[in-house]
Every structure is written in structure tokens, then in C-alpha cells.
Amino acid sequence: MALHTLVGINLTCLLPENLLSPAIFKFRRSLAVSALSTACETEPSTSSVYYLLAHKHRLSHDVASRVASVLSPVGRQKKYDSVLAFFVQMGFTKAQLERTLNLRPHVLAADLEGTIKPKIKIFEDLGFSPEEIAAVVSKEPVILHVSLINKIIPALSWLKGMLGSSKKVAKVLRDNGRLLLTDFEKHILPNIRILMSHGMTKDEVARLIFVYPRVILYNPETLIRCLDTKDKMGISWSSKMSVYAVGVICSMPNGSWERKLLAFQEILKFSNNEIIRTLQRDPKVFCISEDKMRKVKQILLETGKYDNSSIAEYPRALMFSIERRLKPRFEVLGKLESRGLIEEWPSLGYVCRLADKEFCEEYVEPYMSEIDEDFYLGKRALSCKRETQLT
Fold first, then answer.
1. Residue 146 resides in a domain
2. Mapped to the 3 state alphabet, what secondary structure does the chain carry?
3. Does the keyword Transit peptide apply (predicted)?
4. Domain boundary among 123, 148, 181
5. Which domain holds residue 164?
6. Torsion angle of alpha carbons 154, 157, 162, 165, nearest 10°?
7. pLDDT tens-digit profile of 199-228?
8. Is residue 223 part of a domain?
9. What is the model's pTM?
């Protein structure tokens, strides 16, 4: 059929008769007018919330859009603005404000005088600085919506009693604000009892909470499993690293710890005794990924000077940057040896421990006629040269 013929067809003949009746037409027209009216009423109000956030307070488009889509747009801009102004006055950075609103948009609708300010005052009375309060609240803004009497005050009380100072409490809450949301009697106190029944002192429990606050929130079964693993590994509470060992073991889900031990055996060829010694001396080494293990091992073996036993002797070498520390230092030592400027390489531990400035003073500056300083510093953007210029 020709195009002009198709265009000329009366499309009304294809519609059911009842859709063309006056009553239906009037009903559909009223719906359209109603929808248009609603859109005209809603869009400016919604836009006014967006405008308040994005233009007046210079928050990101994504955050402003999210909050505007959640909050009621009618007649509350002044309330929202007062809450925002209070947070700014408290010292919240733009990033902290955006994080708070992204996690908890309804915080702007909270009662400033009756809900928000009393909770902030509790932190102030405990000795928190404005910066610490902003850091804690922006990390876990739901704090502003939980009971002051039943949750926040009891949690702050036991934390202050356990840790001893407001600075330590602030540090712990910046790491894990959920401690303010968890029932002390039902969840935290039983875990403290479990830890102490396994031989930990109150001071050791406090140190564990300070370093690994998440551990105290685990369910009892997980906590007991981690403590049993620690005991099987022969880690005594008399070791100053025992708390860190428990924290590292607990940080790995069920089965991950066993896979990590297997990686040390298969990739690095550690014996059981070497694994235990590493856990006793440097528990955080066990947080290194298997990929990092392989890469460090490869670059060490390529020197021809170090091997698996070198890593076992100084396992902390696994934690240093390959590109910023290991590679450039090995290249410098290789050049010095090839030109007969050193007879043997220092131990792996010694090479890794030296700060950039110290390494330069010992292995670069005495041989400036042989080694261009930029060989070590320039390409790798290390800090030694900059520090030298500042002094």
C-alpha cells in the first residue's frame, strides 16, 4: 500500500466505539488536566529541595537528587536548611555532609532541637572535639535516630570505662560506629566474658577493642572459633602481639584462615614453625593477598640474593610497596655490585627497614659519580630528594 494511502487512513475507525464516546473523552481529559496540575505543583517543590542542596550548599548532583527524591518537598525547606546549617556550623566537611545525607537522607527531617542537638551535646560533654563528632556521625549517621537513653548513653559509658579516654573512644567509633547501635547487655558483654574466660585480661580486651573494634561485635560462635584457632597456633597471651593475632584471625571469614595458611605453605614454602613464628611476630602479614605474595617472591628470587628463607626471616617484606621500595632499591644494589662498589647485599630486613632518606645516604649519595640520583628518585617519585631540598 502506498505511503500517502496509509497516511490518509482515518485512524478513528480502528478504535473501539466506547473510547470515542463523549463521557470517556471528558474523563480522559480530566485525568490529563489533573496529571498536569500535579506535575506543576510537585516539580517546583521537588526542585526547591534540589536547589537548596545543590546550589545553596554546593552538594553534588547525585546526593542532591537522592535526597530530593526521598524527602517531602512541601513547606519544609526552612527546616532542612536549618539542619544543614547546623552541621556546617559543627564543622562537617562537604564530603562528610554528602556521606551523611547519602546514607541517611531523612536526617534533614529530624527535629533539630529535640533529636539532633541533644545527641551532639552528649558527645561534647564527653570531650569529643567538633572534628571527632563530625567524623563519627558521618560514618554512621543512623546514630542520630537511635534512642539516647537506651543506646547512645550506655554505649558511650561502657566504652569510656573500658578505653579510659575520649580520644580513644572517638578513634574506635570512627572505625566502627555500630558499637553505639549494639545492645551492650545482650551482645557485647557476653563477648567480653568469652574473651576473659579464654585468658584475656581487661586491659587486653580494651586493646583488642581499640585496634579491632569489629571483633567485639561478632557472634559468640565465631569469636570462640577464632580464640580456639589462636590456641591451636600456640599463641600465648603473654605475647604482646596476641591481641593482634586474634584480630587478624577474626577478620577472616570461616575457611579463609585455613586457605591463608595453605598459601604460606605452597607459595612461600613456610614450615609450620615459620608460620607460627610469623603470627607471633607480625600478625598483620597474614592480611597480604596471595597475588602480592607471588609478586614479592618473584622479585626477590630475580635478584639472586634472596629466597624463601629470606622472607621467612623477615616476613614484613611482604607488606612493602613493590614499585616504590623493593624494585628501586634492588636496582640500585644491583648497579653498585656490578661496578664493584659493594661486595655483598645487606639482609632483606635491613634493605626494607631503611627510610628513603637513610637509603639514599648509605647507598646513593656516596656513589653519585657512578649512580645518577634520578635513577633512584626521579622515575619512582620517592620522597628522599624532596626531603633533602626542604632541609
1. yes
2. CCHHHHHCCCHHHHCCHHHHCHHHHHHHHHHHHHHHHHHHHHHHHHHHHHHHHHHHCCCCHHHHHHHHHHCCCCCCHHHHHHHHHHHHHHCCCHHHHHHHHHHCHHHHHCCHHHHHHHHHHHHHHCCCCHHHHHHHHHHCHHHHHCCHHHHHHHHHHHHHHHHCCHHHHHHHHHHCHHHHCCCHHHHHHHHHHHHHHCCCCHHHHHHHHHHCHHHHHCCHHHHHHHHHHHHHCCCCCCCCCHHHHHHHHHCCCCCHHHHHHHHHHHCCCCCHHHHHHHHHHCHHHHHCCHHHHHHHHHHHHHHCCCCHHHHHHCHHHHHCCHHHHHHHHHHHHHHHHHCCCCCCCCCHHHHHHCCHHHHHHHHCHHHCCCCCHHHHCCCCCCCHHHHHHHC
3. yes
4. 181
5. 51-66+73-181
6. 150
7. 999 999 999 999 999 999 999 999 999 999
8. no
9. 0.72
Residues of the chain where predicted confidence (pLDDT) is lower than 70: 1-46, 371-391
Q: Is residue 117 part of a domain?
A: yes
Q: Number of folded domains in the chain? A: 2
Give the model's pLDDT for residue 190.
Answer: 95
Query: Which pLDDT tens digit goes with each residue over 140-163?
Result: 999 999 999 999 999 999 999 999
Domain boundary among 121, 156, 181: 181
* Residue 153 in domain: yes
What pLDDT score does 374 carry?
Answer: 58
